[in-house]
Amino acid sequence: MQTSILPIDENSLKISKQLILSGKAVAIPTETVYGLGANAFDTRAVERIFEIKGRPNDNPLIVHVHRDYDIQELVSFVPEYAKILAEKFLPGPLTMVYKSKGKVSPAVSCGLDTLAIRVPAHEGAQKFLKYVNLPIAAPSANISKHVSPVTAEHVFADLNGKVDVILDGGKSVGGIESTVLDCTGEIPVVLRSGLITRELIEETIGRCDEYVLKDGEKARSPGMKYKHYSPNCSTELFDCNEIEKALELYANCISVGIKAYILCDDETARAVRVKNVLNLGSDENEIASNLYLKLREGEEVAQMIIAVSPRKQSGIMKGVMNRLTKACKK
Ligand code: AMP
Ligand code: MG
Predict the structure, then answer these.
(1) CB of 172 within 8 A of CB of 33?
(2) Average pLDDT for residues 54-70, to the nearest whole number?
(3) What is the mean pLDDT of residues 5-28?
């Protein structure tokens, strides 16, 4: 199969719609990361997504819809607080989990009775979703467990020969996956942190809880339990208070000819003063936006990425730390 990267226009939208209607997957840009989308009503098409990615079949997918799509077609109950959050944050990087009406293929939610729905803000994603006018099940467009893609070229690197079309919508500005919020209970629960933080949600509707997976417990959001986002090279993660240790490892690697790079925020980059640095930037939005870009850049040049956690760890940085920890998990 020949994989084409196409700009988003009338021609590519037409081709994409034909592919979707014939049960194929299309890679699409969003403001968080690129997604690999298929018709959520078509079980075979959804199963193909799991096959293409090598994704474990108990890790459910998020359904993407355009801004005018009536989600009540798909879900049975939308609590009042969810309506307020949707009004404030959608379209945007917030995925909301509801009780499903069972209209989409059961393969989407891997047999759960809930459905995760997202309305992406990316203009290209909106055009595509409006054009196909179907709910599109879409995980990130990478091989399972690899670093999520934030450019069309990243998708190509992972899925060349496995998809027909990658719609090119430029660099995903958000840079980390959407916040996943369970809206099935009286109080919403953050299942995965992202750019819409728990603090922002609390400011809008009052209380919001955060789910912490305990050892031995069945994950409420199955994706949480997996190693994820990992570059194809060795990794080691240090706390920002352990810069000396990170530097020692760096020096040891370099002395025996191992190409090591330090991945860190701008403040640490200026403190360590080494040659091989993958600088994530200083502002928290910038760090989130650069995370996967730098991990992908890193695996191209480094044999060992020595990550140092950013200094700030609240708000958006919580989502960044969650990804960084999983990327460096052994
Ligand atoms: P990805 O597609 O790789 O961004 O992963 C989607 C994330 O959403 C995973 O962490 C899933 O576990 C989570 N998710 C999707 N559907 C549901 C659902 N119905 N209930 C809980 N979590 C979900
Ligand atoms: Mg993913």
Answers:
(1) yes
(2) 96
(3) 98
Q: Kindly state whether residues 196 and 260 are assigned to the same domain.
A: no
Residue nearest atom 20 in ligand 1 by C-alpha distance: 221
Residue 116 near ligand 1, beta carbon < 6 Å: yes
Q: Are residues 112 and 203 in the same domain?
A: yes
CB neighbours (10 Å) of residue 240? 17
Are residues 41 and 134 in contact, defined by beta-carbon separation less than 8 angstroms? yes
Judge whether residue 217 has pLDDT over 80.
no
**Is residue 24 within 8 Å of residue 164, measured between CB atoms?**
yes
142 Cα: distance to centroid of ligand 2 (angstroms): 7
Q: Are residues 22 and 135 in the same domain?
A: yes
CATH number at residue 14: 3.90.870.10
222 lines ligand 1 (CB under 6 A): yes
Say if residue 134 is in the same domain as residue 265: no
Q: What is the pLDDT of residues 150-180, one digit of tens each?
A: 999 999 999 999 999 999 999 999 999 999 9
Ligand 1 atom closest to Cα of residue 112 = 19
State the pLDDT at residue 223: 64
CB of residue 170 inside a 6 A radius of ligand 1: no
Same structural domain for residues 174 and 120? Answer: yes
- Asked if 28 contacts 34 with a C-beta cutoff of 8 angstroms, the reply is yes
- Is any atom of ligand 1 closer than 6 Å to the C-beta of 60? yes
State what percent of residues in the chain have pLDDT above 90: 93
Q: Are residues 196 and 122 in the same domain?
A: yes
Model pLDDT, residue 6: 98
What letter would DSSP give residue 101?
A: -
Give the tokens for residue 161: 């020969």
